[in-house]
Amino acid sequence: MSDPSAKSKPPALAQPYPQETVRETFDSIVIAFILAFVFRAFIIEAFVIPTGSMAATLNGAHGNMVCENCGWEFAYGLNDPANAPRGATPFDEQSLAVCQNCRYRNDTRETNDTRRNQKSGDRILVFKWPFDIGGELLGPKRWDVVVFKTPSDGTTNFIKRLAGLPDEVLQIVDGDVYTVSTDKLSEETIQSLDDARHLKYLRRTNGDPTEIAELNQHVSESVGTVLAELDQKMHIARKTELAQEVLWKVAYDHDYPPKELDDDQPRWVVTDGDSAWTVGNRTLSFNGVEQPEQRVELHAQLNGMCSYNTLRRWISRTQSRHFPVSDLRVRFVLDFKEASGSVRVGLTKRSELFIGEISPDGTARILKASTEHPTETTELCSTNIPNFDVERKIEFEFRNVDYRASMHIDGETILATNDNQYAPDLAELRRSHPPKTTPPYIEAADTNVELAHVVVELDQYYISNSARLPLVTNWGTQNNPILLRDNEFFMLGDNTAQSKDSRLWNYEDVGPHLQVRGEGYQQGTVPRDQLIGRAFFVYWPSGLRTSLIPFLKDTGWIPNFGNMRWIR
User: Fold this and answer.
1) From CA 439, how far away is CA 303, in angstroms rounded?
2) Number of domains within the chain
3) Same domain, residue pair 308 and 454
4) pLDDT tens digits, the chain, 568 residues: what are they?
5) Are residues 331 and 421 both part of a single domain?
6) DSSP E strand boundaries for 80-144
7) Residue 204 sits in the same domain as residue 337
8) For residue 103, how many other CB atoms are within 10 A of its CB?
9) Domain span at residue 515?
10) CATH of the domain at 370
11) 403 and 518 assigned to the same domain
């Protein structure tokens, strides 16, 4: 008699051979590696920033400093000879780091561990697939932070900010980038610019001396006509709001006042002897109901200095190679104590004065005057801020940047000039050296008000190196516009004084991989096929150190979550 339970028992499953299990495991590992390599090759790749050419947006190998005079914390660069055309200071040399906030010269030797270990460069993530797909939506855009292969060898990775796009002419004037599309230029101008490009190529390749001499004469004779047309047709390339926010550099933050003051240290100064203004205790306050206009002015050096770049001990305190910067932003938290009067902020650009005014009733205006006649103002635009509450503290900001004056309340733009009201005279800018910047001022009348967290910041200033012969030497600099052809890009570093970028790539910076292209490669540009991707995130800034574990005290092994950030 059969057992019923035996009939219902399922058949035993065949057991795999041991070699089949090993093979499946091996196949899984191989597939995982393939996917990882595909992901790295086409999707996202990690890079390490080795140099300071993009400081302070991105840091290379550096040291950290808390200013002895004001308490401002900043990073300063270390030896970077490969990327510093003006030289750099080695890490173990007696050197000075100048505070971005108060201009105090700090001795770097006392701020690092005894083994002279530097902080590592920022580790970043780069999107590669958008550039591979391309198109208007995903392709490279102006002001992107881009990783690409350096023209010198085609293997080393560089990172810069993309400033110039294909099929346009670019020129740096007075710290700003100006461009015009080639389809808006005459054939004669395009031909002259292309002749200048061809002349550069002949010089780089030791071409026929007779042809070089003839072409040089032709290019020199056409300079005036070319620049005259560009003066009329070029427009300033304004930065995106995200890029602009990153590129602001502090000129003075009143939350970090210097302990000791000399001529180099910034401060707010009361201009009237018997004034209702007080400037102490990290705030500016005006207690002057029924009193006329009175002001405080910023005493500070307003130039393109970058605290990342260290100075040698022997540099004089009075020496300065930096260019004056007049594109500024003033911001503070505004607290009206009385519902009367007004507060004004004045910013100067060469001979023009722009005034941002706000009143407790919510009226906001932007006024314009000349520096010679500052009281003769013209109203450019005005508004009445909806739902303005005088009882509430507001975040006020007035800026003058890229030839646009604008006022912002609580992060929202409420007023801004247009190009008809305020625009550059490119011909005049090229002919004249930028004057010393007039410091900003804050003015109040017939009110009681307190200003907290008062900060003055400077815009990025791209140095345009002087050239010996127009249209021939340097690339894209003042009086040296560059014609960017199809699939050619122009790159600039945020640390403009210490960045070997499109402006400065010389004959030796053209590697064999580009030399074989002949005139298909233009010196000072990056071809599209040399672009790698768009940088988007700092996933590992230099780690924090601690002495709690003795053998790790000189290593930054603790994640610095507070400094992880998006790249704009």
Assistant:
1) 11
2) 3
3) yes
4) 444 444 455 544 445 555 556 555 555 565 555 545 555 555 788 899 988 899 999 998 888 889 999 999 998 887 544 444 344 444 444 578 889 999 998 887 655 544 455 677 899 999 998 888 888 888 999 999 999 999 999 999 999 999 999 999 999 999 999 999 999 999 999 999 999 999 989 988 899 999 999 999 999 999 999 999 999 999 999 999 999 999 999 999 999 999 988 887 899 999 887 899 999 889 999 999 999 999 999 999 899 889 998 865 434 333 345 689 999 999 999 999 999 999 999 999 999 999 999 999 999 999 999 999 999 999 999 999 988 998 999 999 999 999 999 999 999 999 999 999 999 999 999 988 888 899 999 999 999 999 999 999 999 999 986 554 556 668 899 999 999 999 999 999 999 988 889 998 888 889 999 999 999 999 999 999 999 999 999 998 887 777 777 766 667 778 888 888 999 9
5) yes
6) 95-98, 105-107, 123-127
7) no
8) 23
9) 124-239+463-537
10) 2.60.120.560
11) no
* Residues 71 and 193 occupy one common structural domain: no
Residue given tokens 């519902």 in the structure block: 339
CATH number of the domain that 528 lies in?
2.10.109.10
In the 8-state DSSP scheme, what is residue 61?
A: S
How many Å apart are CA 260 and CA 1, to the nearest integer?
Answer: 108
HEC states along 234-269? CEECCCCHHHHHHHCEEEEECCCCCCCCCCCCCEEE
Contact 423, 279 (CB under 8 A): no
Q: Are strands 95-98 and 311-312 parallel, antiparallel or unpaired?
A: antiparallel
Tell me, yes or no, whether 140 and 114 share the same domain. no
Give 360's contacts (C-beta < 8 A, 6+ positions apart).
336, 338, 339, 340, 341, 342, 390, 447
Whether 503 maps to a domain, the answer reads yes
53 φψ region: left (φ > 0), alpha (ψ -120 to 50), beta (else): alpha
For residues 444 and 356, give the distance between their C-alpha atoms in angstroms, rounded to a whole number: 12
How far apart are the C-alpha atoms of 310 and 99, rounded to whole Å? 10
Tokens encoding 94? 């007696």
Q: For the chain, what is the largest distance between any 2 Cα atoms, rounded to a whole number of angstroms?
A: 121
| Same-domain status, 436 and 503 | no
Residue 546, SS3? coil
Write a three-state SS string for 63-84: EEEECCCCCCEEEEECCCHHHC
Beta bridge partners of 288: 447
C-alpha span between 444 and 448 (Å, rounded):
9
Residues forming a β-bridge with 252:
456
Tokens of 364: 């906001």
Give the domain-ending residue among 441, 458, 475: 458
Identity of residue 323? F
Residues 230 and 260 occupy one common structural domain: no
DSSP sequence for 221-235 = HHHHHHHHHHHHH-E
What does the alpha-carbon distance between residue 269 and residue 542 come to, in Å, rounded to a whole number? 38
| Structure tokens, 342 | 């007004």
Of 57, 72, 39, nearest in space to 121 by CA:
57
- Asked whether residue 44 is assigned to any structural domain, the reply reads no
Q: Which run of H or E residues covers position 26?
A: helix 18-38
